[in-house]
Amino acid sequence: MMSSGSSTDRGATRRDSSFQPWHFYILLSLAGATGAVIVSRNTHPAALIMLSASIVAAGLVGAAFHSAIAGFLGGGSVEQVASGRTRQFLEQEKALVLRSIKELEFDRAMRKVSDQDFAEIGGRLRARALELMQALDGPVEKAPAPSAPAKRTTCASCDAPIDSDARFCKHCGAKL
Questions:
Q1: What is the separation of C-alpha 4 from the centre of its chain, rounded to a whole number of angstroms?
Q2: 168: helix, coil or strand?
């Protein structure tokens, strides 16, 4: 039995039946090819086929160009998550962002990254991870900000520096 994630049946996926931008380009190129054939009287049939094929190819290029421009202009929203490849891409990006956060924390522990850089880069990575998690799992409520700053900046077990929002020590795993 195949799962829906590993199905190779192309007919099983639901297609969007609304009018798509590429439909416009194909229809326009077919109308242009028909018009060119009508206007070109007394022309060799091979020339008419080449003319029609070049006009249809121009329509396909227009559709591809439209798709590329639309990706640059409107590709930044992760609120509308479609199933399939988009979800897989978001899951891969989430894993990459979480791995980057761990590597950044390791570099900070090894003193390769300053505290200021860690705060700046870590903040951006955590914001992106939260955005991706919200897109994948639905709305995620933010934890309320602590009213008082944490008293301890080192672990009681191993005396290693800890983050203010940490619940476990990164070095020994002790509960804070």
A1: 21
A2: strand
